[in-house]
Amino acid sequence: MRSAAVLKALPGVVILAVLAYLPYVPAQLPGILPGRVNGPGSLQLLATCLVIAGIALSYDVLFGRTGLLSFGHALFVAAGSYLLTISLADWSLPLPAAVTVAVVGTTLLALVVGGIALRVGGIAFAMVTLAFAQAASIIVLRNPSGVTGGEEGKSLNRSAVPGLLVGVANAPYRYWLALAFVVLCLLVVTLLVRSRAGHAMAAIRENEGRAAVLGFDTYRVKLLAIVVGAFLGGVGGIVHAVVLGGSNPHVTTTEFTLALLIMVVLGGAGSTWGALLGGFLYTYADARLVELSGAGFADALPEVAQQVLAEPLFVLGLFFIVIVYFAPAGLTGLGGRLIRRGRAT
Amino acid sequence: MTDFLLIMVTGLGLGALYFLAASGLSIIYGLMGVLNFAHGAFMMAGSYAGWLTMSNLPSGLSVATRLLVAVVVAIAVGAVIGLLVEVVLIRPLYRHHIQQVLVTVGLSLASVAAAQGIWGADPRTVEKPEWMGGTTVVLGARLPNDRFVFILVALAVFLGLLALLHYTRLGLIIRAGVENRTMVEALGINVHSTFTIVFALGGAAAALAGLLYSQYAGTVSPAQGGSLLIYAFIVVVIGGMGSLVGTAVAAVAVGLVQQLANFYAASGVGDLSVVLLLALVLLLRPTSLKGAHA
Amino acid sequence: MTDMTTATGQGSAPPPGDGPVLAVEDLHVRYGGSHVLQGVSFEVPATGVTALLGRNGVGKTTTLKAIIGLAPRTGRISLRGKDIQGDATPRIIRAGIGYVPEDREVFGGLTVDENLRLVDPDQGVNAPIVGRLFPDLVSRGKQRAGTLSGGQQQMVSLARVLLRETSVLLIDEPTKGLAPKLVTEVADVLAEIAQRTPILLVEQNLPLVRRIADTVVVLDAGQVVHRGGAAELVADQELTRELLGVSMRRDGAA
């Protein structure tokens, strides 16, 4: 039994080890990464992909694991991010205190918002979470008393952060921080899924009425899912702010939550590696599709079509619709299906 | 007093736009259980169809004439898009509500991105008839004329929809379907064609809302539909999904609360108070929000 | 396995009275992980009332729903010899089945007249059959169905299916929760309807079954365990207790 578990975890460990080693790889991957693999540009891009992958996994705790369609997850990511930058800059807190404020604040916010929103179910829950997240987005953009920085965002107070995490030369450390966040998400989600609460979440996802009959307190289980998801999302917001050097108002928007939803479905809802893969690929595609569309193959198309194809969200949106129709289990589900088919023939 | 009157009329005008945006959304949700994120794209389609029509018609025609033609074109475009979306994207996923939401999410992202690619992300100026840009003095208050247009159009649509719901067979089937769609089918009535018509109607109303909103804002931009959609969602939740009268009341309430709070508290508080209103409604009467669907 | 179904399997419209009006063969229903119906086969003769009996939760309601396509099913279902298992619900209904669901399911927000006009757009509450069988409803045409009593709602639910020409009616617990006087009224109406149209009736009230049913089909654990005459079954105390057990008790606790 033990050795089987180790064997099952092995591919994951190998992937993480390879990722951890990337800052020592000087190779060029033209077209795939900007410059050398361990160059600051590449590592910055990869770090962003990793953070968003972790945040996508945090959203999957709600959507894929518990079946909760929330349109407000951005709220918690934004809370983590902005509470950190504001505590550091405006309240002059030291980093550990600021991180504590951000994490505790986000978790409490999740308790309150989740507590209210869970009074309704299904699609109404989706709309209510959407409205709360929208309220936060409005506050951030209105920039009350100049605290949030409005559309410009709130930059990180560099003097309050260890030198290792700032500056172009230290990109590898920020990359490793992002990787550590992914590992944290992996551990928490794996433990949660195997716990009694995790089984209750699965039961609720399959059939909430039956889960209630089986004796699960569905309200509390769902609230737990929201709080754990928000906790990881808040930590993700913190890491995001450190990696990008500040809080970006984009993480408060509905588009960001919708993007998380798309990532999870693309990768495979309810699958740990699927959510990570979806988040990673989506972020990568969003950043790189613009350059790829200018790479020549589209030259034969009319100008308007080129302009449209140059919009990453157009390509991703259509690809997403195709996935929903033809591969409802996402890319990981599709991969599994192809592997099984390969074995069968 | 004059400020108050201005705020009330502006609030009602905005409420009118919210109603136009939310009415289709509410009926679609009530009848089919589909949360239509593509509704924002319908609105965007309406505003761009209107803008393109107005700028391509010969400039010899008066702005008002071109606007009227644009309204007709926008409504037609909205109806056709709504119809196509239902038949091509929604119908194959019948009863898979989450997948239907996902597809409309993908569609809304892709269409906003497409509009951005074609016309750019920046707002484009929209021509406005001189009279609609002017004001009328009522009881000493200078009231913008466009607000009255919005209110009258929304009122006409509201009464039209109400008549449709209560005096036609289609309306009878919609009302019965909002209450219990399964039983409608169990009486031998095919609701699929009703779904298509409702989507077309919702698309037409949304396109009209989008076009009028671009008149209100003076510009068209790809992001407009999305921001209007959020308020439409809030209106639908407060109004009780699937109820036309509830939607109308909620739309007016949201428009007024937003304007009053913006003026008497501080700019921006209005948007927050709308969310607060939503939270209050949720806490006070959560059961009414579950919609007609179990 | 029944052998009568195959006899009427071909031929698009056999004359009424010739073979069963409705034949169900090897019907399976699975909901999520549970296998609710496990190969149910029975027939509904072209005349009279066939009662579908069984304890609570054995799949009686599911059987009716499966016949009209409201439950995911496999198997063969034929109406007057014509296969209908591949059709969608509205088509099955229009092919000639009337469905009166458990708990009536009238549209509470619609008036009585509107409830009826859903099926008969032209006459609604003014249809002659409504005046004949449910005179009480005629004067309540403008009343919202949700404000009617349970018995009146049952009348609306029954009237709805009588406004269309049907080959067979599926009626699910029409007397559930009604006062004894109303039970008798409903029974009278059912008996009168059965003169013209065969009925497949789910019913817990055994005296009522004895009064109006001709044949019975008993389900247990998703399978048919007994077929026969209604009078014989009800007369046989031992058999009734064995087949229906819990459902005999008034409290229905199980």
UniProtKB/TrEMBL annotation, chain A:
InterPro entries: ABC_transp_permease, LivM-like. It is found in: Cell membrane. CDD domains: TM_PBP1_LivM_like. Keywords: Cell membrane, Membrane, Transmembrane, Transmembrane helix. It is a multi-pass membrane protein. The keyword Transmembrane applies. It comes from the Bacteria. The chain crosses the membrane at residues 43-62, 69-89, 95-116, 123-141, 173-193, 223-244, 256-282, 315-339. This is Branched-chain amino acid ABC transporter permease. It comes from Intrasporangium calvum.
Automatic annotation (TrEMBL), chain B:
It comes from the Bacteria. It is a multi-pass membrane protein. Keywords: Amino-acid transport, Cell membrane, Membrane, Transmembrane, Transmembrane helix, Transport. The chain crosses the membrane at residues 6-27, 34-54, 66-89, 101-121, 148-168, 189-216, 228-256, 263-284. It is found in: Cell membrane. Belongs to the binding-protein-dependent transport system permease family. LivHM subfamily. This is Branched-chain amino acid ABC transporter permease. The lineage of its organism: Bacteria, Bacillati, Actinomycetota, Actinomycetes, Micrococcales.
